[in-house]
Task: structure prediction
Amino acid sequence: MTQLELARKGTISPWVRCVAEKEGLEADFIRQGLAEGTIVVPANARRADLDPCGIGQGLRTKVNTNIGTSADYGTAETELEKLRIAVEYKKDAVMDLSTGGDIVAIRRAVISACSLPLGTVPIYQAAIEATETRGAIVNMTADDLFGVIEQQAEDGVDFMTVHCGVTQRSVAQLSRQRRLTNVVSRGGAFLLGWMIHQQRENPLYEQFDRLLEIARRYDVTLSLGDGMRPGSLADATDSCQMEELLTLAGLVERAWEADVQVMVEGPGHVPLDQIVANVQLEKRLCRGAPFYVLGPIVTDVAAGYDHISAAIGGAIAAAAGADFLCYVTPSEHLSLPDAEDVKEGIIGARIAAHAADIVKGVKGAIDWDRRMSVARKNLDWEEQIRLSLNPDKSRRVHSRFATQGTACSMCGPYCAMALVEEYLGIPVARC
Result:
């Protein structure tokens, strides 16, 4: 039985118990959220060494790291190094989006080395293999696509992005609307081209029951992809995006009926004043299904700094109820990220997630900040460094310039907290 089916029968699985311990919550709270569809615990039935996480309502906001090769660059070694960084900087999940090299071997190497929940986008492999064996992506067959999905499930993939909401109605809507940036989702573009060439419906939508059967057999969590997400502020919250969301809402219900865990992916580029409405729409239409957002990116002009733009949007989205943030790196829109980009993207997304958790009242979130404040009050630099998101950088920056006394080099002997403590005789602060 899938975890969703077990939860509905009142059974607490080992993965659910593990998630409850990590969250500091009762196991039955996780079980009930899983049963209602407001929480997912991505865990392929074939994974035995998983460090699971729960994603959804009432839980800490989770962060995903995308890794993967491109046709121009990357090997298994480069991606394993990115995976190492993701683990070191405490990401919750990883997605392998490889499109270059031996992508099957790379995925299997990553799964073998990865204790975190692992996701993929199966259409990438299916499209590449169709190009190699059939001459073009548009010559791919439905059996080709579902064969890849089953292979990846067999390999142990825990969650899959599947662009089921890109339909013939989407094609018609896109033609009428004439977006500024059309379709920026790679998977969405692959399927759009296939449908136009074949003059047929998206097989992921048309044969959704076939997809559910595979997902149920391996207990793979479906992440319903946003193939029509806006790629510019000009296209945010438009009819193409809303058309897809309405389709996904119906597919959420069908997944639940089949005892398959499901979450919904959200928009890319969204102005600040539209983010909350986007989150509320997804939560209402999809009956509280976990919401997985890319950013959102709040301005189109942050090239080189899109991790900052995405952190701003991600904090607002998560505070409004989004459950899962996909990190964005400084190389977004420019190139394949390297290991340093991955690190910067992770830190930005973790800041956004934690800031939102404070607003959500997630258990223990504000306590971390209080401990840091106490350490600052006491000028306890080792504790400040230990509590920081990136201790190596904190230590390096603190020691960069020599200073007088116990304060940092910004204020030296004129440190406000040191002076006030001296003037008032305030004792050392305690947590």
Summary: The first helix runs from residue 3 to 8. The longest strand covers residues 62-67.
